[in-house]
Amino acid sequence: MCNEIICRCEEITKEEIEKVIEDGAQTANEIKRFTRAGMGLCQGRTCRGLVERLIKEKTGIEPQNIVPSGYRQPVRPIKIGQLGLKNEQN
What we know:
CATH architecture: Orthogonal Bundle
Helix content: 25-40%
Largest sheet: 2 strands, antiparallel
Strand order of the largest sheet: 1-2
Number of helices: 4
Number of strands: 2
CATH topology: Arc Repressor Mutant, subunit A
Strand content: 5-15%
């Protein structure tokens, strides 16, 4: 049993990712949707390469043929006044 953490943000283990690959997931986006790996605060910047390596190891797909997962820019909560609404009241 391998409990090596691949995605630190979502605490997804190598075992969980290997399981979804065995169940048929072959792209980084499929793994992301099934496990949430790459959906944390860093948006996959840390784990994307590890996930792609696992896809290569389990499926034999060459790295240049693995479609990288999409990602969004990280967001941080801000106060509503920082959006400029504070200045409109003056």
